[in-house]
Design a protein that fits this description.
Order of helices and strands: EEHHHHHHHHHHHH
Number of strands: 2
Strand order of the largest sheet: 1-2
Distance between the termini: 19 Å
Structural class: mainly alpha
Length: 205
């Protein structure tokens, strides 16, 4: 995975400026929109003002500032705003979906733990659980981090735990299911944890 800080872009209109961030909070908010992230993308491609408005409010780092910006448009022509806003929102969604795609391809080719893609909603929930439960990050940091940042931190954390236990790596990579469970226990991991399964999270639908 080519790790980069969470993508941000600033949308300006008149005296207003709003920063849009490709964070876990934004990803979850977009997934909860009608039609989810695919629906948001379709609305942006059609230059739907309501769709653009939803994406801005879902991804803005300052929701109050975002409301001020969209409210300022009530008595103004939208033509001068829609094009620029569409570009900013599409860049944001592209960055959110592109992060970690190399790992997704690798996990898919290997079949992961089950060979089955994981729904986005379950993927985001799992990332939140890993970051708060395993890494011990406060929720505020988790919501502000990008999915790729959380994955990288969690994989580094589990790699460290496994390497601190003699023989754990060989057991996990080549042993039976029972051997892997025991290696996980020896390393202080969840008995059912599967590192390949984590990478398979990116093979999502």
């Amino acid at each position: 995975m080519s790790l980069k800080p969470a993508y941000e872009t600033t949308l300006r209109y008149g005296s207003h400026a709003v920063t849009l961030r490709a964070s876990l909070r934004a990803a979850v908010a977009l997934d909860q929109l009608p039609g989810g992230i695919p629906g948001a993308w379709d609305n942006l491609m059609r230059q739907s003002y309501s769709g653009i408005r939803q994406v801005i409010l879902a991804t803005a780092t300052d929701r109050a500032a975002a409301f001020c910006l969209v409210s300022s448009l009530s008595c103004k022509p939208l033509a001068s705003f829609v094009g620029e806003a569409q570009a900013a929102c599409l860049d944001l969604l592209a960055a959110l979906l592109k992060a970690g795609d190399d790992d997704a391809a690798e996990a898919s080719s290997q079949g992961g733990a089950s060979g089955k893609p994981m729904p986005l909603r379950e993927y985001f929930t799992t990332l939140y659980q890993y970051a708060t439960g395993w890494l011990g990050w406060p929720p505020s940091e988790v919501w502000n981090a990008s999915p790729a940042e959380i994955e990288a931190a969690f994989l580094a954390h589990t790699d460290r735990l496994v390497k601190m236990t003699p023989g754990a790596i060989s057991k996990v990579s080549g042993g039976s299911d029972q051997a892997q469970r025991q290696a996980n226990i020896d390393a202080g991991l969840d008995p059912d944890f599967d590192r390949a399964g984590l990478q398979a999270l990116k093979a999502r639908q």
